Amino acid sequence: MPRGRPRKKPDAAPAPKKTTKASKTKAASATLGFEQQMFLAADKLRKNLEPSDYKHVALGLIFLRYISTAFEARHAELILDDPAAAEDPDEYLAENIFWVPENARWSHLRDNARSSGIGKLIDEAMLAIEKANPEQLKGVLPKDYGRPALDSVMLGELIDLISDIGMGDTDDKARDVLGRVYEYFLGGFAGAEGKRGGEFYTPSSVVRTLVSMLEPYKGRVYDPCCGSGGMFVQSERFVETHGGKLGDIAIYGQESNHTTWRLARMNLAVRGIGADIRWNNEGSFLRDELKDLRFDYILANPPFNVSDWWNASLEEDPRWQYGKPPAGNANYAWLQHILWHLAPDGTAGVVLANGSMSSNQNSEGEIRRRMVEADVVDCMVALPGQLFYSTQIPACLWFLTRTKKQKGWRDRRGEILFIDARKLGKLVDRTRRELTDEDVARIADTYHAWRGEKDAGTYEDSPGFCKSATLDEVEQHGFVLTPGRYVGAEEAEEDSVPFTERFAALEKTLKEQFAQSEELNMKITASFKLIVQKESV
Fold first, then answer.
1. CA 227 to the chain's CA centroid
2. What φ, ψ does residue 452 adopt, rounded to 5°?
3. Rg of the chain over CA atoms, in angstroms?
4. What is the enclosing helix (H) or strand (E) of 509?
5. Helix (H) or strand (E) holding 250
6. Do residues 122 and 63 touch, judged by C-beta distance below 8 A?
7. 3 state DSSP class of 406
8. Confidence class of residue 50 from pLDDT cuts 50, 70 and 90?
9. What percentage of the chain carries pLDDT values higher than 70?
């Protein structure tokens, strides 16, 4: 296990010019105190609307409040310096702020929140914002607030509720809070929707584990099935928290669900994160939008065990370097797609169902053997159960790399690190578990020490938790990659009570139990005799 590891910083990364949203906050699991109350209050307003429908109503308004707050703060600054510049959209674009037309500003909607036509006003605001910012927001914002199914009173109350975000703090702080609220609402709606909601949202503690292990300081970051964009938000937050600056990483992604793609675009815009996120309904296998690009970091949570992904056009696809994946399960198609997109020194973290570590159905066992023999599997982490909204299927993390002889780290060729984290985490409600900050740090620090990173401490195998195994050992286990097979049993704590004392105590307890048993037998026998006497009379 690593000991005494200080958190490192890039050697020559200058401090950010401006303190931004993510750098002001702690990990995403921390709360501001009112986030949960605000979500519960907003959820009460939805009445008979399905969470999947109401999600876009609430998140769209939070997004609108965010960009309007950012715009109005910049507008006030420009008015003081140069009133003419305050009406120049380029002045806002230069600061990564969206231009918001007058009829789309939050103050206008807030003043008309109790109007019976508020739904129509919101739609007009969304259309105006998209028209003013076509490159970033075309086709992204929800524009169906005026439909009869949405009660205007509910919309007005929701606007009032969202207007309270910020609690009178500075505009910069209000925008920070809005970003946090947006992220909390994403998770809340994922929980409310259950299985369907989990498809667009990866739990924060799982994302933080991936990001903390990969440490994407600088370079290209990619997610081939990006959902609502949580991987990207955490990656940017990581860079800023560790002394980097916005723009140190370039973000790329692809998503096949158009509704989820819109959520991702809004989520990133709320954070001020620029990204190249592509959408098509065919998906990354059939229409790889970024097929010629290679990435330094890939983070992905593909849908588990997808069975309807295959198409005959994929038969001779060059991505299947380790074998053609079975048509009935896309797990090994995702792994090979991700490996195909890795840069020569790139690393990837992938969330998959536990079955991917041991399945021998169709060609999966053979593909896994070839991947192990090619030495592209770096680390395997078994996760605790109940982490996901969408499924109770146990999950694991695969860490892949093109080379195990990276500059500045030790030569790990011929080795795989296994981490069994199934006993970690805490229950946050009756059905869902979450990895704590300490859990994430323990897993990540173990990986960094094993890789031989500077100031990462000394790695040691820890029975029941981690084991560095050779490829020969993996072969002896039939190329099964389940960490439990390698880490062994946890060492029992040494009992400080001397054996003679423990034995005497056990002997005393046993004698007492024998005496109680004899007394009970006598009572039962007496009861039977009494029954026989009564029957004979």
1. 10
2. 80, 30
3. 29
4. helix 499-536
5. strand 249-255
6. no
7. coil
8. confident
9. 85
DSSP 478: T
Residues with Cβ within 8 Å of 495's Cβ and at least 6 positions away in sequence, in order, are: 502
DSSP string, 350-400: EEEEGGGGT--STTHHHHHHHHHHTT-EEEEEEPPSS--SS--S-EEEEEE
- Tokens representing 74 are 């910049």
Q: Residue 460: name the closest of 473, 482, 445 by CA.
A: 445
Please report, as a single letter, which amino acid is at residue 46.
Answer: R
Residue 196 Cα to chain centre, angstroms: 16
More confident call, 506 vs 134? 134
Distance between CA atoms of residues 172 and 70, nearest Å: 8
Tell me if 143 sits within 8 A of 126, measured CB to CB: yes
3-state SS, residue 265: helix
Does residue 516 contact residue 447 with C-beta atoms inside 8 Å?
no
Q: According to the model, what pLDDT value does residue 328 have? A: 93
Judge whether 113 and 160 are in contact, CB under 8 Å. Answer: yes
Distance CA 440, CA 226 (A): 21
Give residue 171's pLDDT. 53
Helix (H) or strand (E) holding 249: strand 249-255
Structure-token pair, residue 49: 């609307």
Residue 491: CB partners within 8 Å, gap ≥ 6?
Answer: 463, 464
What does the pLDDT average to over 234-259? 83
In tens, the pLDDT along 159-202 reads 998 988 764 455 555 556 767 777 777 777 777 765 554 455 78
Is the per-residue pLDDT at 525 higher than 90?
A: no
Distance between CA atoms of residues 46 and 148, nearest Å: 14
| Mean pLDDT along residues 280-301 | 94
pLDDT of residue 535: 65
Evaluate if residue 426 carries a pLDDT over 80: yes
Distance CA 157, CA 347 (A): 47
Tally of CB atoms within 10 A around 225: 21
CA dihedral 404, 320, 391, 386 (to 10 degrees): -10
Residue 125 has pLDDT above 70, yes or no: yes
Q: What is the dihedral of CA 330, 333, 334, 338, to 10 degrees?
A: 180
Upper half-sphere CA count for residue 498 (Cβ side, 13 Å): 3
| Residue corresponding to tokens 């989990």 | 198
Give the strand pairing for 433-434 and 426-427.
antiparallel
First-last CA distance in the chain = 78
Average pLDDT over residues 301-316: 92
Mean pLDDT (the chain) is 84
Taking 3-state DSSP, the helix, strand and coil percentages for the chain, each rounded to the nearest 5, stand at 45, 10, 40
CA dist 146 and 124 (Å) reads: 9
- Assigned token pair, 341: 């997109």
> How many helices and strands, by DSSP H and E, does the chain display?
20, 11
Q: 69 with 171: CB under 8 angstroms?
A: yes
Q: CA-to-CA distance for 76 and 508, rounded, in angstroms?
A: 82
Residue 11 has pLDDT above 50, yes or no: no
Question: pTM for the whole thing?
Answer: 0.77
